[in-house]
Specification:
The complex is a heterotrimer of chains A (337), B (160) and C (168).
Chain A lengths: L33 H11 L4 E12 L2 E12 L2 E6 L2 E6 L2 E6 L2 E6 L16 E10 L2 E9 L6 E8 L5 E7 L5 E11 L13 E2 L4 E2 L12 E2 L3 E8 L5 E6 L4 E8 L1 E2 L8 E5 L2 E7 L4 E7 L2 E7 L3 H12 L7 H10 L6
Parallel strand pairs in A: 6-12
Antiparallel strand pairs in A: 1-2, 1-11, 2-3, 3-4, 4-5, 5-6, 7-8, 8-9, 9-10, 10-11, 13-15, 14-15, 15-16, 16-17, 17-22, 19-20, 20-21, 21-22
Chain B lengths: L9 H6 L5 H13 L1 H18 L4 E3 L1 H13 L10 H7 L14 H13 L5 E2 L3 H15 L2 H5 L11
Helix pairs in contact in B: 2-3, 4-6
Chain C lengths: L7 H20 L2 H18 L8 H22 L12 E3 L6 H16 L2 H11 L5 H8 L3 H20 L5
Classes of the chains: A mainly beta (337), B mainly alpha (160), C mainly alpha (168).
């Protein structure tokens, strides 16, 4: 399959000294209300038109790692990455492109539940923020209501409302993850986006009515509500949750964990169950096995927040636990639909 | 290879990425020079894209149950000319089926489904990087898509 | 699964949609597609002993193609059988597909079914089963050059069928 070379050319993207017109403004003027700013940002990319160098930073075993990628946003189409690996967002679909071709990893799910609002479990504050990639911003901080500690910061373009940078912080304020534009320019100086030419048959299928057996747990951790369940092409079942600000998935597969085949990670025992944790550039993952089911929890929340959900799922003690519920859900008649 | 020697069926191979570098270069030269070739390229590309855009199809779970029951019971095909598949199979020397050979009809379906849902001890290596991409793809629908999807472009090689 | 070789039940569970999609695009209707898949799975059951772990979908594509071609040859020797109209429900895999795209898919499928099998099979193997020319050549027992020319001719015929213009 032919691929087109994409020069990353970060240095070639000039940051304009004056404000750059980045496409049409969002239909409504951004307000100072923190929740309005966050919810508007979700759709702002449909109206924005720009390209930029995106810096991705994450903490891995105490050390900050850093890399860069490329993003182009135009008329609701988002094209990320360059060279060997790309991601395309279009018409409610998400495609991952590799040398072998494009794979459709997600299609529209009209039956997915609406997530709770961001303020449901987080205290939000908005104030004028610093310039990001040369653009003036509004900064929204999300704090843990129990401790008052800020755990996430969002920097939104004051004109268009698009999210320019997102930080995730540890409880002590240390940076855990950051995704932000370092330089942006209008589309026109960027390369055109070719549409995906071929999809491998690998999109997830929503799982709907359960004929019998136990349903997946509706809530886990501190406020993560179940929004949808999906059968992935590899046969794993994905339970997708959100607390309104962060998201979390449990991927479940029948079997036992092959620990020898997995890379080294942070090993911890949670309620007597062996787990192994891994950071990725924008998420954290925890793997464990329970009752004949291998569970991988992936979340963009701070790891300690996701761990609350892991503790909930691992459960423990006598009687039925959330983990037992999940095992029955995965292994019961609904497990093979 | 001169332009005059180039067969036009190279165009499909060109679109499919099946040509070596020299032939590809020759085709590209021809495309630059010939409007007819460019038009033909557009036609085969359109036809290729039309087929590739066809959605994958599937049977209902009930239809699968019935079909797999017939496979397990070595029954004739469901439709059309009576016994033609059975006749075909009679021409092939049969090997004895394992557990399912002696079970027929609804009992075979039940046995098949039961076998598939019994928890097993298969060793599993979770594809953490793939799961991260799938989770972030879903998150990008309800949150900011750029920051949610940025990580998916970065291969970390964790059991992928 | 033992030693990387799946059981036929695992093949049906994990690759059934792939098998059915390829079979449907070859045969052009649900009834024949189901028969192809059923026969293919019977051959999978028998052939698993000799399967060497590798491209499973390539192996499956070859099996369902051979089943289809066997049936094509059989029908050429006998008069066509009248198949009953039994609309077994075929599920599109993409949820929420809109009517316009379903209509277009039906048109493309109809056009695909209208071109001769000699050209339809390599086009389906390339564009539905995602096989390389070399894999298709091995499946059909023809040289790669023949695969190339049949795919090209098939796409020109398909284009003509879709636009109503005469094939070049």
């Amino acid at each position: 399959m032919r691929t087109t070379g994409w020069p990353l050319g970060v240095a070639a993207l000039a940051v304009a000294a004056a404000a750059v017109g980045l496409g049409r403004a969002a239909p409504a003027q951004p307000s100072n209300d923190a929740e309005d700013l966050l919810t508007s940002a979700r759709t702002a990319s449909e109206h924005a038109s720009f390209a930029g160098a995106l810096a991705v930073t994450w903490r891995d075993h105490g050390r900050l790692r850093h890399t860069e990628t490329y993003a182009q946003v135009e008329d609701g189409v988002i094209d990320l990455g360059a060279g060997q690996s790309r991601v395309l967002s279009r018409d409610g679909q998400r495609w991952v492109g590799e040398p072998g071709g494009w794979s459709l990893v997600l299609g529209p799910d009209v039956r997915a539940k609406i997530p709770p609002p961001p303020h449901a479990h987080w205290d939000l504050r908005a104030a004028p923020g610093p310039a990001v990639a040369g653009q003036p911003t509004m900064e929204v901080d999300a704090a843990d209501p129990a401790t008052g500690a800020t755990r996430a910061r969002f920097y939104l373009d004051r004109t268009t409302g698009t999210l320019l940078r997102r930080d995730v912080l540890a409880a002590n304020g240390e940076l855990l993850r950051e995704v932000g534009f370092e330089a942006i320019a209008p589309v026109g100086s960027a390369l055109p986006t070719p549409p995906p030419r071929h999809a491998a048959h690998d999109e997830p299928r929503p799982l709907t009515a359960v004929p019998s057996g136990d349903p997946a747990p509706e809530t886990i951790g501190r406020g993560y509500q179940l929004l949808g369940t999906y059968r992935q092409p590899d046969g794993s079942v994905q339970l997708y949750y959100s607390d309104g600000l962060f998201t979390l998935s449990l991927f479940e597969q029948p079997g036992t964990v092959d620990w020898d085949a997995l890379p080294a990670g942070d090993e911890q025992r949670v309620r007597g169950v062996e787990t192994r944790a891994y950071p990725t550039p924008t998420t954290s993952a925890v793997v464990w096995g329970l009752h004949g089911v291998v569970i991988t929890c992936v979340s963009d929340a701070p790891p300690d927040q996701a761990r609350l959900a892991v503790q909930d799922v691992v459960g423990g003690g006598a009687g039925s636990s959330v983990g037992d519920d999940i095992a029955r859900f995965v292994l019961g008649p609904f497990g093979w639909d | 290879m001169t332009p005059a020697d180039l067969p036009d069926d190279l165009l499909s191979a060109y679109v499919d990425g099946e040509l070596d570098a020299d032939t590809r270069a020759a085709v590209e030269d021809q495309l630059s020079a010939s409007a007819a070739w460019r038009e033909a390229l557009a036609e085969v590309t359109a036809a290729r894209d039309a087929v590739r855009a066809l959605p994958p199809l599937d049977l209902s779970p009930e239809a699968w149950d019935r079909l797999l029951g017939r496979v397990g019971a070595d029954e004739p095909a469901r439709s059309g000319a009576p016994g033609r598949v059975a006749a075909f199979r009679r021409s092939i020397r049969r090997q004895p089926g394992p557990w399912i050979g002696a079970v027929a009809g609804a009992a075979a379906v039940a046995a098949l489904v039961a076998a598939l849902v019994v928890p097993n001890q298969q060793r599993v290596t979770p594809k953490v990087a793939t799961f991260s991409t799938q989770q972030q793809a879903r998150a990008s629908v309800v949150g900011d898509p750029v920051s949610a999807l940025a990580g998916a472009t970065l291969t970390q090689g964790m059991g992928r | 699964m033992a030693d990387g070789v799946p059981t036929w039940e695992e093949v049906a569970r994990d690759h059934g949609r792939f098998l059915y999609s390829v079979a449907y695009r070859l045969a052009g209707n649900a009834d024949d597609a189901q028969d192809l898949v059923q026969e293919a799975l019977v051959r999978v059951r028998r052939g698993l002993e000799r399967y060497e772990p590798g491209s499973l979908e390539g192996w499956l594509a070859r099996i369902v193609t051979n089943v289809f071609l066997d049936e094509v040859r059989r029908r050429r020797r006998r008069p066509a059988d009248a198949l009953p109209e039994d609309p077994e429900r075929v599920l599109p895999a993409t949820p929420g597909a809109d009517e316009a795209s379903e209509e277009l898919s039906a048109e493309v499928q109809q056009a695909l079914a209208s071109i001769p099998e000699d050209f339809r099979v390599p086009v389906v193997l390339c564009d539905v089963a995602d096989q390389s020319y070399e894999q298709i050549a091995a499946t059909l027992g023809v040289p790669v050059g023949t695969v190339r020319s049949r795919i090209h001719r098939g796409r020109r015929l398909l284009r003509s069928a879709l636009t109503g213009e005469g094939a070049a």
